[in-house]
Amino acid sequence: MSFVVNDLSAGxxxxxxxxxxxxxxxxxxxxxxxGANGAGKxxxxxxxAxxxxxxTGSVVIDGEDVTKESANARAxxxxxxxxxxxxxxxxxxxxxxLQLGTATGREGEWNLDTVCELFPLVAERLNRRAxxxxxxxxxxxxxxxxxxxxxxxxxxxxxxxxxxPAIVVELYDRLGEITKRGTTVILVEQDVKRAVSVADQVxxxxxxxxxxxxxxxxxxxxxAAYFGTx
Length: 230
Ligand code: ATP
Description:
It contains nine helices and ten strands. The protein is α/β, with parallel strands linked by helices. The strands form two sheets. The protein has a six-stranded mixed beta sheet with strand order 6-7-8-3-9-10, sandwiched between helices. Strands 2-1-4-5 form a four-stranded antiparallel beta sheet, covered by helices on one side. The structure holds adenosine-5'-triphosphate.
């Protein structure tokens, strides 16, 4: 499934937080979006997901322009996001949270059993209330919830934020299992080294604009783009 973002701009009221962003991703690839606080990373993901209205440009999946579609309609096409802060329902059990993820109505490889195989720590906690779990367990549950919706494009917003290094390594280890089934991943990350280590291509944002993008970039180049000293 091809995925193209073309000339995308978005903002909040008078503020244009994202200007003229373009990229395309091949099936099964990982694109890392890198940038400092406030660079526009979450805004980009929200605009792709349809939670924010695009001011210019388009989001095209498998040749179809979805820019005017609602967030729900895009979710049914498999454009799914794990938001920053996870947003699980804390008083529901893990299993109930996962069941909500199936609301996309999409059939595919991922279901309760297969996500439990991918994340054993989720499998062990199915009847636990989500709010009672550790941050890492909650993050794994949030990713599993998106997966049971069988995404074509899975967007992950700062999954490592505030988590212990060991669990971050574990979460990143699972990305290969996700992409090898053809799912495209867009990863927002402040940890440049970690993002670059898994990404097929990198897109750097600086104050809402592309400062650098491409494949096989070196970390020094990316760091310069990140700080705007490139
Ligand atoms: P962070 O790493 O801090 O999440 P980010 O790169 O994801 O940063 P965004 O959250 O996309 O950045 O923010 C981009 C710009 O838009 C910032 O100037 C921010 O203050 C502004 N912004 C973000 N959300 C809103 C909102 N709901 N209302 C108004 N302005 C917002």
